[in-house]
Amino acid sequence: MRSAWNPAKEVRWRQIEDNLFTVQFGCLGDWNIAMLNGPWLFRNQALILEYDGFTNPRSIKLDKIAVWAGVLKLPDNYLEEPVIKGMCRKMGKITEVQIQLPAGYVGAFVRLRVDLDINKKLERFVSITRAGKKDWYQVKYENMPTFCNHCGLLGHWYEECGTGEHDPMKFEWGDFILADE
After folding, report:
1. CA atoms lying within 13 Å on the CB side of residue 8
2. Neighbouring C-alpha atoms within 13 Å toward the C-beta of 110
3. What is the DSSP letter of 85?
4. For the segment 49-103, what is each residue's pLDDT rounded down to a tens digit?
5. How far apart are CA 112 and CA 102, in angstroms?
6. What is the pLDDT at residue 154?
7. ∠ at Cα 35 (55, 94), nearest 5°?
8. Pick from 18, 101, 130, 173: CA 20 to 30 A from residue 161's CA?
């Protein structure tokens, strides 16, 4: 992670138990990069960051990952933060909405930062009902860890799901939910 974060100051790692570590940053700028610029992947698995420095690390429920997602081709009248948060609430807790895209991002989409529950299926589409008609909009995720094309959960892929024998023609998830890099 040192090369990904490129910290200005010393970073101290402490192993609590197998697969559980605490990380102490030498300055606020390094902490902000690690906490706000993710998700961070190690061997294509998500690094879940959530620690206040005071709580017993073993007591923290590590079940959320903050990711960036795009909702494609929303009509102009839906480009309001409360509307976007409402239609995307099934995805998880929305922590930021970017209606005006930052430099380097081009396209007909809004970008949002969402805390995904790693125990829930990824949302492929979001919807809004207007005048009794439900309209659907595709979701694309940025920099995602391994996920299953069969069940839509994070942390494994389809050959590790159930018996591992699945018809690829019946997959409901796939690379189509990934944003172009």
Report:
1. 7
2. 25
3. H
4. 777 778 888 888 888 899 999 999 998 889 999 999 999 999 999 999 999 877 7
5. 12
6. 92
7. 95
8. 18
